[in-house]
Amino acid sequence: MIEQPLNGTQLASKKTIDFLSSTHKLLIDGNDVLSAAGETLRTYDPALKIALAEVPNAKAADVDAAVTAATSALHGSWQKMSPMDRSQILLRLADLIERDTTWISEVESLDSGKPKHQIAAVDVRLAINALRYYAGWCTKLAGETIPASSPELLVYTRREPVGVVAAIVPWNFPLCQACFKIAPALAAGCTVILKPAEQTPLSALILGRLALEAGLPPGVLNILTGDGATTGQALVEHPGVAKITFTGSERVGKHIARIASATLKRVSLELGGKNPHIIFADGDVDTAAVTAAGAIFFYAGQVCSAGSRLMVEAKAFDRVVNQVVSEASKLKMGHGLHTETTLGPLISEDQLKRVSGFVERSRDTGIEVVTGGRRGQGTFASGSFYEPTVLTGAKDTDGVVSDEIFGPVLAIQTFESFDELVKRANTTSYGLAAGIWTSDVAKAHAAAAAIQAGTVWINTYNQFDAAVGWGGFKQSGYGKDNGREGIEQYLQTKTVWVNYARG
Asked: Is 138 among the catalytic positions?
């Protein structure tokens, strides 16, 4: 593994430095406002562990003000705007994000630790595509006429927005996840309160500025920075919020579902995953192994779809292990603003301790650490870096196989038969995604049908598109982002009966 020097902030542009040093405020009803309580949170560069900026920690009073603004806009300017005009605003917002891709990627890299060039190519591009895709839906949300039993009754349906939406997004894909939720909500005619993760709030503040520049009316999109226990809790409890859309941990998702039930809010949850990545010996083993390495080490494994459990047919096992280890050795650890960096830090020291704990417990039980298995050394010891790690010899009941680690740690296992594979692949409590590599078409389709996951990739991995729904089964949550299913979550159906009988 190659190590890049840690002088990332020296590479930041003047625009970014000026932005970081400015006074950051909440966006409520189109205005920049300080938190009513005056409390702030610090956000840190995880590669250097230095403070980047302070943002408001929104309290219940701020949430109430945002809900009031969003409700007013819902029944006012936004409701009165034509679908075509709403579409044009979403398209302009996409254009503005595209214009500012370099700057947004730089800020997000500092805030999250992820490589800037990867953010530009993946995160920002997915965000833009979501906005453009859902801009097309604004003019296509039609009801239907239903033939009733009486010939003198006209029955038709209207597709209407559910109301004020609270979008709570995670720290691993801040901008991307925000747009996955904002775009369909706005296309449906809802108004939105966006709460970014407390670890990565900065791109949401930029998004709020760009939304106003695109012509979004005041109150349609409100940005509340703050922690989950305060800001997030107040949003989930608020009776004026009609829907919660959340991406994050299983624990927090279940908490949200419990609290939201008190006011019968609609809830959609995209939670964790322990995704089986399966390689049959009859597949393109070399390509599969290279892809498997990318599927776990991309963004240092901090991806809900990470292929963190690699299941390899026994006859191809040694070949795959050697190839994955070789790919891990090519990764370049460093600050996200360095163009050569391919492995950035974990989001925080707490996350590093969590990842390290899984590996150390595995080591203690005799699981082999083939490569990696320690935090970054030398210059990197002061940041939240962890080496790309490959483990072998783990059983299905071991934590590194059953639990979501959210780090660059891959457990590689063997299997002998198709039936054994399916049974073991489905033992996980999660059901987000899976990958299958085989040249046997019948086997591929049979495995895809048998594996309990919301998405199954065959002879590829981590493919995403705004037109394709994304969400999981079992403990991975319910509801979908993206695609037609994504916008359906923000709509409700009203039935209208008209009696046109004469006399």
From this structure: no
- Give the C-alpha separation, 63 to 228, whole Å: 13
Cβ–Cβ under 8 Å, residues 451 and 434: yes
Tens digit of pLDDT for each residue in 89-128?
A: 999 999 999 999 999 999 999 999 999 999 999 999 999 9
> In Å, what is the CA distance from 174 to each residue of 104, 106, 167, 335?
11, 13, 11, 18
Nearest to 21 by CA among 12, 30, 32, 11: 12
What was the pLDDT predicted at 412? 98
If 0-12 CB within 10 Å is exposed, 13-18 middle and 19+ buried, where does residue 489 land? buried
Q: Pairing relation of β-strands 153-161 and 145-146?
A: antiparallel
270: annotated active-site residue: yes
**Residue pair 27/221 in contact by the 8 Å Cβ criterion:** yes
Q: How many CB atoms lie within 10 A of CB 24?
A: 21
d(CA 359, CA 380): 19
Closest by CA position to 224, among listed 24, 487, 89: 24
Say what the pLDDT of residue 51 is: 94
Cα–Cα distance between 190 and 71 in angstroms, integer? 9
Judge contact between 170 and 503, C-beta under 8 A: no
How is residue 249 written in tokens? 């941990």
* Active-site pick, 138, 176, 179, 304: 304
Hey, is 96 helix, strand or coil?
A: helix
Check 108, 270, 313, 327 and give the catalytic one. 270
CA-nearest of 478, 498, 476, 474 to 488 is: 478
- CB atoms under 10 Å from CB of 79, counted, come to 12
Angle at 483 between CA 481 and CA 488, to 5 degrees: 75
pTM: 0.95
Residue 36 has a pLDDT of: 84
pLDDT at 502: 83
Distance CA 123, CA 118 (A): 7
- Which DSSP letter does residue 9 get? G
Provide the 3-class DSSP secondary structure of residue 470: strand
Neighbours of 19 (CB within 10 A): 20
Burial class (CB in 10 A: 0-12, 13-18, 19+), 339: exposed
Q: Could you give the domains of the chain?
A: 9-271+478-493 (3.40.605.10), 276-465 (3.40.309.10)
- In the predicted model, residues of the chain with pLDDT beneath 50 are 1-2
